[in-house]
Structures are given as C-alpha cells and as structure tokens.
Amino acid sequence: MLSFFFYGTLMDPDLQAVVLGGRLPAGVSAVLDGYRRRTVAGRDYPAIAPAKGASVSGQLLDGVSPTMAARASQYEGPQYTAACLAVTTEDGMPCHAWTFLPVRGVRLSARDWSLDIWQQRRKTLALESASTDMTTVPTGAFRRIESDWATRLRRTRRV
Question: In the chain, pLDDT over 70 holds for what percent of residues?
Fold first, then answer.
C-alpha cells in the first residue's frame, strides 16, 4: 500500500472518503519541511511551494491502494503532480509519502490557507461536487492512472 501526505482539502475525513472511495483509518499528523502552503490565486484550495525555513502541517495516511491513489489524482486534476517527499510524523519519525505539488504555472496568492475556514465556507459544495465528479470519470483514463500507481507501488516495494 501507498502512503500519502495530505495538506489541503483531503485532510477533511468526509471529502477524503468520497474522493478515495471509502474511509481509511485516521491518519497521523505530520510535517513537510522546506515548503509553505498558500491559497491558489483565485481559488479556495491550497498548494505548496518550496520555501526555506518554512513547514507545512498535514496528515500522513497509510494504506492507500492504487485505486484510491488514482481517485486522488483524478480529484487533484492536471494542475497537480504527485511527488514522493520526506515528511516527519508527530512523534518525530521520518518517512516518505506521496503528495501533490502544483505544476508549473499555478500561481499562489499571498494568503495562508486554513482547513477550518474551508470547512465552514466550502465543504458542503466541495462534497457535492466531488460526489458527482468521482462518478463521471472516464473508465479508460482512470484505468491508466490506476496502472501508473500500481507500478509506483511495485517500485517502492523493491527499494
């Protein structure tokens, strides 16, 4: 299984369940050093960017299947790409986890992003939208993404 570090909307357990296609055991708090989280310009969700001396708090989730990873990739869309980065759990244990980084051209605003504020203002709409979007994914495209994640999992098992 794969490990993921979520730092934005996918930290919300309800949205996470809709996007991943089911609930997983609760993740643990973790930190990604060397990055900062900001709101994407003109949007209501975050992205992260390298920043010396900064860190991003988030959630480390283990037990993510290739199918769940493919669903997360579909949710994040083409403006994000997956990367495996080093994170540190709340008890100080270093580990590697997949996370979604913005692709070149995604502009971040100067505003910090807050899960609490997002949950108050946008969660209901996001849940409705994700529920619809996750049922209308073209099968062929989804199978290719799922196959890519299965390959990544096999490669990490060899290391």
Answer: 98
